Amino acid sequence: GLEAVEVLGKLLAHIEQNLSRRGTAYLAGDTKSVADVVVWGTLFPVLQDETSLPSKNEIGALRGSISMTLSEACRKAADSVLMPKALLEYKSYLQKQPPPCLAMERATSNEPEEEEGSEPALTEEEITAAVDAWARGVTTDATLFWGGPVALCGMRNVLITSALPYVNNVPHLGNIIGCVLSADTFARYCRLRNWNTLYVCGTDEYGTATETKAVEEGLTPQEICNKYNTIHADIYRWFDISFDYFGRTTTPYQTTIAQDIFQRLLARGFLLQDTVEQLQCEDCQRFLADRFVEGTCPFCSYEEARGDQCDKCGKLINAVELKNPQCKLCRGVPVVKPTQHLFLDLPKLEEQLEPWLEQSWATGDWTANARYITRSWIRDGLKPRCITRDLKWGTPVPLDGFRDKVFYVWFDAPIGYLSITANYTDQWERWWKNPQQVELYNFMAKDNVPFHSVIFPCSLLGADDNYTLVNHLIATEYLNYEDGKFSKSRGVGVFGDMAKDTGIPADIWRFYLLYLRPEGQDSTFSWSDLMLKNNSELLNNLGNFINRAGMFVCKFFGGTVPDMVLTPDDKRLLARVTLELHQYHQLLEKVRWVAEILLYPPQDGGMGGWELALTEGFLPHRQRAGTVTGVAVNMASMLAVMLQPYMPSVSLAIQGQLCIPPDCFVLSHNFTCTLPPGHRVGTVSPLFQKLEHDQIEALRKRFGGGQAKQTPPASVTVMAPGDPQLIQELTEEVAKQGNHVRQLKANKAEKAQVDAEVAKLLELKKQLALAEGKSPEVLVPKGKRKK
């Protein structure tokens, strides 16, 4: 077997390296697939010979992958088919084969080796096509189509939603990037592609949290909704979010559409009735929702536990389990009474849900976390889910015996997408009951995934009215702030209503949030990094190039684009930029905008030595200088369009300075000459301003809360002890971080990652102890306690 393994050695090492880097046991995606079975079946005969295998240290992840991904049935099949005769034949076959040539290996030749990251060779066909496209310029059919309120036959109709923000709070930067800004970037890209695009959102306004907030502020629920809807709308307007319509869920259309879906589910037998024991306040003459009850936790005896969860121990609670319960409205003692509720029969709908999910996953773009979370729900088995609540503030239930109840917000809120669209256009059904012609993209943070991938689709499938279901579900991880979490009460982090007061333009915020966008894992906002990206990537790189190209046209060519005589190297440049533009499209079409895309223009824009040519020392060679300047200013014109989804105001400024014609402001797949010789540009001025260190430090301190202070001496108190709101928030964070650490350990994450998260947990526990007025002990991870 040694000979066979020697041939396979590099291949095994390559697989091992890939598995270790991705931190997964599966070759493709986040679960077992045909790839795992095929590779295992191929390697099975060799893997039986333990004496000839590389050590466990060398292929530990591969061994783990094989043991985790294969069922007993696979092993039995292999034993009968591959053993023992086939094993000998397979080894013999391998010994006769030449060693495989891996794509990752460099070819051995006398030619100098290409440096890592070097550009692939261009073909003559690619160069010729690029030159032809450049010469043609903008085609006559490139007029930008801005879409309309109706889904049209014969066009690509793209319907985009971002998760409805709850009305009772102010969104922070993580909320903004997780939902509305990500969706806005894609919507802008779709419009630049001339796709018929509709982007809707609005505030989610019904439910217990609204009633609670109204009580806190001494307002009616409607007044609270009006107040915070305006706050949300103002924030998104400042961030230049291009909703076609930003609405709300407290409308007559919401009632009509939600009740219609309910009636259809009822008529088709997908609703159940059951009795639930619930706390009733006899003084208030109402059943109490979870948030209207406080009491002593039955698990840890914390005296201010909520009716749904204890903020100290983090355990979920049924309100009737609370000891010494109190009504939060009147402080009276509630009593336990039975009440009837309606449930969506998810187990009965599962047989429709699963084939739809498989089809949507096969044809759509779902992020890995969205698929994983959805599979977890399906794997654990669906259970009937209550859809009614004993509240006043909500959509009324149109059924005798339940008319004093409203729909539970998780059932009601996603229907807001439909009702908000209905408030925008009377042709809303052309979008929401038209799955044959409409593609639906949902944007959200990962905690909203089950409601959009399981529960809401089940409601629409059960209603059986040809509803448009999600094709592409785009979920982000979480954005953290510096080394902690956003907290309004502690003054930690930047919230949407504060960003405009920093003096930093909205486009810089957009750029940096999109640069940080937590696509595959949590990311962290950093003031130092924001300053670095602004001053280096935007000001010195991108802004400098565009400004220099425009200034050369003004200063040395009388404000008009000069004649261009392309050399062979210039033509290769056109082809190279066109290939980069194709990659830009490929990633954005898949709803991926990683840092490389944002930094592409300044770093990789295919300029090569061109930027060096834009110096006054090159001007004695006037014809060459004219060609360099002309191509550079056309590249700046192309960048103006590419940047529009990310930084719309900067894009508009470039368009104005270079006087780019509106019919040229369309995103092409080719690098074309949009500013021909003789085109006159306008006044060119800097696009970005430097962020100074003192300015950033002042902002860091202003938004740092307790985090702004470094660890003080032991005699100094970091926070005033006894603040119940602070203690509650820290208790929640400790519980959340503890769950995160346990999940990492259960998934066998890398030790370095686990240790880093444990360190965060210990620091949170220390902060909690200080907030409670205790002297924090020196905490060390379990298993490392000092003796």
TrEMBL record:
CDD domains: MetRS_core, MetRS_RNA. It catalyses: tRNA(Met) + L-methionine + ATP = L-methionyl-tRNA(Met) + AMP + diphosphate. GO terms for cellular component: aminoacyl-tRNA synthetase multienzyme complex; cytosol. Its main location: cytoplasm. SMART domains: WHEP-TRS. It is found in: Cytoplasm. InterPro entries: aa-tRNA-synth_I_CS, Anticodon_Met, Glutathione-S-Trfase_C_sf, Met-tRNA_ligase_1, Met-tRNA_synth, Methionyl/Leucyl_tRNA_Synth, MetRS_core, MetRS_Zn. This is Methionine--tRNA ligase, cytoplasmic.
